[in-house]
Amino acid sequence: MRRRHDEQGMDPIGEINVTSLVDIMMALLVIFIIVAPMIEQGIEVNLPTAEPAKIDVSDVVTVTVSSNDRIYFEGQRVTMEDLGERLSNIQAANADAAVLIKADQDIRYGRVVEVLDAARSAGLSRLGMATKPAE
């Protein structure tokens, strides 16, 4: 803390030196700007091409089947048994929920049918397939 001289002697100055605080905040901001684009990582899926239809996304859950036959429910890897259980829980909470299936175009057709069957067995009837728009 600095002191200033006046007629009566030395008085303390009640100012906070914010220069170092600003330096630290700027460094953190630069780090955040560099790291932020790397944080968002998804599951790499090569979608087939088709004309997409508009859907209401307010009550949609996403099931992804990657090119290596791994199944993801809302971005978390699950087994086929876990998928059926989670879809049953969704159906119990919201009978009108929709399931959007994102499947890589190069996977076995049977794997997609297994996911569709799990959704139907859970009692969900609103099913959709994600595609890329045709060019």
Summarize this, please?
By secondary structure, the protein is α/β, with parallel strands linked by helices.
| Biggest sheet record | 5 strands, mixed
Name the poorly predicted regions: none
The residue-averaged pLDDT reads 81
State the name of the first-level CATH class of the largest domain: Alpha Beta
Global Rg? 27 Å
**Largest beta sheet: strand ordering:** 5-4-3-6-7
Distance between the termini: 67 Å
Class based on secondary structure composition and strand pairing? alpha/beta
Number of strands: 7
CATH topology name of the largest domain: Nucleotidyltransferase, domain 5
Helix proportion range: 25-40%
How many structural domains are formed by the residues?
2
Instruction: Give the topology string: H per helix, E per strand.
Output: EEHEEEHEHE
Number of helices: 3
Q: Shape, please? A: elongated
Architecture per CATH nomenclature, i.e. the level-2 architecture of the largest domain: 2-Layer Sandwich
Please state roughly what percent of the residues sit in beta strands, choosing from under 5%, 5-15%, 15-25%, 25-35%, 35-45% or over 45%. Answer: 15-25%
